[in-house]
Design a protein that fits this description.
97 residues; single chain; mainly alpha; globular
């Protein structure tokens, strides 16, 4: 694959994983357990779990490392997450029609 393709897939995957961690309903219980130990208003680790810019940075760092050190494992995960992101974005854009 090309660098542009991999970067696009990774960007969509990072978006999807970040959203999964900080917003999606399916991870609410995990977030609540995290917030019991790390209050978002008083700790940096708590704030991390609420900030898409902060969480996105760390998810992106892991994605870059995974693409470099384990591309055969990362690629199917990245493609799956990228397709999920694309489906979510398309759904959001078309549900009002």
């Amino acid at each position: 694959m090309t660098k542009t393709y991999d970067t696009t897939i990774d960007a969509l995957a990072v978006y999807r994983i970040t959203r999964l961690l900080i917003e999606d309903e399916i991870t609410t219980d995990l977030r609540n357990a995290w917030f019991e130990r790390h209050d978002p208003s008083t700790t940096k680790l708590g704030y991390l779990a609420t900030c898409p810019w902060c969480m996105g940075f760390w998810v992106a760092a892991v994605a870059v490392a995974a693409r470099h050190y384990a591309p055969r494992m990362w690629s199917p995960v990245a493609r799956t997450m990228a397709l999920s992101a694309a489906a979510g974005i398309l759904h959001t854009r078309t549900k009002s029609f």
